[in-house]
Amino acid sequence: MSENSEIQFVPKEEISGVDVNAVTVDSFGRDIIFGENGLIYSRTSGDIRPLVRPDKQAQSTVFEIVAGKYWYTTPFQIGASTQNLADTILERTGLHILPHAVKELLIAGFSFGLTPVYTGKKWLSLAQAVKDEGFNPYAWTVGDKEWQETKYHQSGLSKYIPPEGFLVPEGTSSEKTAVLLEELRRLNIAPPLLIVVDDKLENLQALERQLPPDLRGVFTSFHFKPENDLADANYFFHWLRDMSREKKVSPERVFLAMDVDNVLLRTNEILFGVFTSWLASLVQNKDNRVLSLS
Ligand SMILES: [Mg+2]
Distance of alpha carbon 105 from its chain centroid, rounded? Predict the structure, then answer.
């Protein structure tokens, strides 16, 4: 029997000493706590202990499963993607986890989703740092609307970018280009500086090809690479600040569009970090004997 097959999520809470994300109750009536560090804890009468850490085997098996991104782009289409992931996990690891629980864990992971940046004074989210500088960025993405909106709220991106600045057409990358061109047309005045940042070069190139002539001269793109310190969030933030000064355009007059996945949000880090670790931890602790540690 697997107690993890009946995960019920309750709202997150604060517990001293552990950065708590989601709390659930297992079949023994214990609280199960999902920590920001990727570990899972159990709590019995106030006593909090980590469950057995996932070993390398569990970690790498789950990593492989999660990396098969067939399920990720539309994870909410239950019956297709999340179901698919849950089935693969059961088949490969013996952990019986409901699609609903996979979905909730995925959402919970995005509580830590905002990309961090060091501004020179302190660590902030990239979204906040850019806002604090005076920019009013658009969040620019494409795909399953429900999933994109869930990430937008769960991560806290909604605190920095209002709904009208959240451009999320359904469909493919050509819709992504179209929605930005439409927003520029709607504003009716060419901005003095148009900056677009994305981790997919094709998106930047497609946009550049389709820009009307009056915007080509003010367009600058930034190819964001989260794993390269000459193109990551820290680099981008300083580049952006310098660009606005160099072009003598104040931040509030810059039209800035920032991609969501792997730019404003550290999507891959969440998928292959906490989300993978939590699943691996559940795999490692699926046996009652191991769970009875606490
Ligand atoms: Mg992206």
Answer: 12
Query: Are 19 and 36 in contact, with CB atoms under 8 Å apart?
Result: yes
Q: Give the residue among 61, 60, 52 at the shortest CA–CA distance from 92.
A: 61
User: How confident is the model over 212-257, as pLDDT tens digits?
Assistant: 999 999 999 999 999 999 999 999 999 999 999 999 999 999 999 9
Tell how far the Cα of 53 is from the centroid of ligand 1, in angstroms.
31
Specify the pTM: 0.87
126 CA from centroid of ligand 1 (Å): 14
Q: Which residues contact 198 (CB under 8 A, 6 or more apart)?
A: 140, 204, 221, 222, 223, 224, 259, 263
- Domain 114-265 sits in CATH 3.40.50: yes
DSSP state of 273: I
Ligand 1 centroid to Cα of residue 19, in Å, is: 27
How far does the centroid of ligand 1 lie from the alpha carbon of residue 121, in Å? 27
Tens-digit pLDDT profile for residues 70-116 = 776 666 554 458 888 888 988 999 888 878 788 888 888 898 899 99
Sequence ranges of the chain with CATH classification 3.40.50: 114-265
Tell me, what amino acid is at 11? P
